Amino acid sequence: MPEFAYNIRQYYPQQRAELLHVIAQIETYPNAAERVLTKANLIMLHCDQVDPHTAMIVKQELLALDGDALVSPHVYLGQSSNPTKLLAWANERSWRALCAKLQAIPLPALQALAQQIGALLVHNQARGSLKLGSTQWHWGKKTLVMGIVNVTPDSFSNDGLLEAGQSQIQQQALDFADAGADILDIGGESTRPGASTVNIEQEIARVVPAIQAIRQVCPLPISIDSYKAQVVAAALAAGANVVNDIWGLRQADGSWNTALAQVVAQAQVPIILMHNRVSTVEQFAHGTNYAASDYGDIIGEVCAELRQSIDFALQAGIANDLILLDPGIGFGKSPEQNLQVLRQLRTIASLGYPLLVGTSRKSMIGITLNRPVEQRLWGTAATVAYAIQAGADIVRVHDVAAMVDVCRMTDALVRHEG
C-alpha cells in the first residue's frame, strides 16, 4: 500500500457548524450526525474558586466519562481546604452527562456548577438576533461594522467633528453608510489620556444636535457613547438606538450606576457593557486611563467583572437579549495586557453575549509597530481580522471603508457553514 494512501491530516474546525457539516458528509442520517457531533466537540472549561470536595467529585466523574480535570496539588493530596482553580476537558456529550449527574446530587455547590456549565453549553449554540427598528441583526451571520463619529475637539485620533458643523457630520454619516457601516457610534467626550472633562450640559449640546442631524439623512442605527444617565436619556430621545457604556454600569466610587441602568431598562434598548477597571476612574480623569491595572489573571478577572456588570444589568430590569459585551481594549490595561485579552478573546466570547471589539488606532498598535495614530491602518486591520476569527460580532472602527473590506474577507473565511 502506498505510504500516504490514507491522506491522514489533523483537522481544525473553526465552528461547531463546520464540524457538523464534515460529520454529515460521512454520517448521512441527520439525527445521527448531530449525536456524533456531541462526541467529537471537545470543550475545555476553566473554573475559579472551586472548593476541594466539589473539585474532586468533578474530576472523578469526568474520568468516568472519558474526560479529565486538573486541580491544585493541595486538593488531591488533602493538604488544605482552600479553593482551587479547575481546568477540565471533555466532549460535549460528556459535559452534558456530567451536568445531569451533578444536578442529581443534593449539594448546592454541585448543582450551581452544573447549572453554569449547562448555560455555557447552550450559549455556545444559540446566538439569536437583535431587532433595532427595521434593522435585524442575526448574530454570527456577519461581522457588523460600527463607524466612529466623534463630536469632540480633542479626539485621540484627530477626527473630532465638534467644530465641523452639521452638514459635515451628516456627510460623514452618509459616507460611512455608503462604505458599508452597520451602526454609527456618537460620542461627545474624548476618552484619550489627558482629555478635558465634559459636563452633562456640554455633552448633551454636542451629541443631541449631531444625532438629530444624522437622523435627517441616514437610517443607520445609532449608539450613544456615554456613561451619564442624563446624556443617554437625551440621546435616546433624539433618536439613538443603543447605549455604549465604557464603564459597564459602574461609577467612579465603585458603586453601580443605577440611574443609567434605569434609563436603559425603561427605554428597552440594547446596552454595550465595556470592561474597565473602576480603580482607573481617577487615573482616567487625570489623563492616565491607559495605565496598567494590577491583574493576577487578566482573562479570568475580565470575565468575572463583565459577569458582575451583566448581573447588575439583569437585576435592574435590562433584558438578557439586549446585553452586549466589550473587553475594553486600551482601558486600564498595558499594551501587553491588551494583546493578552485579544489572544484569549474566544474565552470572553464564550460568556454567551454578542461581543464588540474596539482596537481601531489604539495605542497598543502604535507601540507594537512604532507608528503614530495616522499610520495605524494596517495594524488595525490585523487586529480586526483576528478579533473576528476569535468571536467578535461587532468591530468599532474609524476607517470604515477599509475595515468593511477586512470584515467581509474575514467573514468569507470564518463565517461559513462548511
From TrEMBL:
Gene3D superfamilies: Dihydropteroate synthase-like
Classification via CDD domains: DHPS
Pathway: Cofactor biosynthesis; tetrahydrofolate biosynthesis; 7,8-dihydrofolate from 2-amino-4-hydroxy-6-hydroxymethyl-7,8-dihydropteridine diphosphate and 4-aminobenzoate: step 1/2
Highest taxon of the lineage: Bacteria
Reactions the enzyme catalyzes: (7,8-dihydropterin-6-yl)methyl diphosphate + 4-aminobenzoate = 7,8-dihydropteroate + diphosphate
Gene Ontology molecular-function annotations: dihydropteroate synthase activity; metal ion binding
Protein species of origin: Herpetosiphon geysericola
Domain named Pterin-binding: residues: 143-408
Entry cofactors: Mg(2+)
Protein name: Dihydropteroate synthase
PROSITE patterns in UniProt: DHPS_2, PTERIN_BINDING
